[in-house]
Amino acid sequence: MVATGVTTTPAAEPPRLVIQVVDDAPDTLGFLVDALEAAGYGVLVARSGEAALQSLEWVIPDAILLDALMPGLDGFETCKRIKALPERAHVPIIFMTALSETAHIVAGFEAGGVDYVVKPVKIDEVLARLATHVRNARVSRLAREAMDVGGMGVLVLDAQYRIAWRSPRAADWLRQFVDLPAERLPSHLQPLAAPLRAAGSGSALLGARGSDELRLHWIGESGLGEAMALLQVRPVADTRVREADLTRREIEVLSWLAKGKTNRDIGEILGLSPRTVNKHLEHVYAKLGVETRASAAALMSREGVLPPAG
User: Fold this and answer.
1) What are the tens digits of pLDDT across the range 187-203?
2) Pair 74, 181 in one domain
3) Is the pTM higher than 0.85?
C-alpha cells in the first residue's frame, strides 16, 4: 500500500469532571479523594466552608460533596451561600452527614442540596449518585446556555412566586427594569402574575426604562408547583396595538393595512365597502392615538402581528 503522506493526530480526550470535596475530617478526605480519582474524577479539596467559597472564586466544579457539620461555617450555611452565587448556583451539592434524622435531611434540601449520603459513606453509592446528578446538571446547563444564546429571558417560579431559576438574560433584565437582585418577584408585581397563572396564559407589564418596557408572558405550569414564564423587552410603542381594545374586524382591517393594501383592496378581501373600511380605520386611528395610515401600519408591524392569510 502506498503511503499518502497524511498524518493524523489522536483526538483530544474530554476534560475530566471535577468534584469538590468539603470536609474537615482528614480520614474522610483521604478516602474520598482516592476513590474519586480512581473513578476518573479530578478532585478539589477544601477543609472548611470558608475555604470552599474562596476556591469557587476561580473554579466551577461539576459537583460538590459537602460535609454538613464543620466548625465555623457549617455545611448548610455554606450551601446557601453557594446557591446565592449566580454563576455557581447550578452546581449540584450532595451533603455528607452523620445526621440521618428527618429534620436534618430537610434542612439540607432547604439549603439547596440535591441529595445526601449518610456517613460513613459507601463509595459505590456516592459514585452512583454523583454520576446521576452531574449528568442532570450538565443537561440543564446546556439547556440554559442555549436559552441565553438565543436571547431568551426565562423564569421558573414556585407557588409563592419565588424565582426557582432564571436565565442570565432574565436576571439582567430584572435588575435593569425592576431593580430585582434575583430571588423573588417583588410584592407589587405578584398581583400581575397571579391572574396569568390562573388563566394559564397572557402577559403583564413588569416595568419600563427609557423607551423600552419589560413584559412577562406566561408559558404554563412545569410541574411540582412550579411554572415557567418568558420575559421580553419591547419598545414601549409596541404595546399600543395590544392594549387598544380593537375589535376583531378592526384588527383585520389594520392587519391588511400593514400589508400595504388600499381601502378598496381591503374591502374586496373582507367583503366591505371602501367607506366602511374607512370608518373602521378612523376608529383604529383614534384608539391607537395616531393620525396617518403609515403610523398605524408601523405600529402593527412592530407589534409582530401577522395579517391573516389570503
Assistant:
1) 666 777 777 778 777 77
2) no
3) no
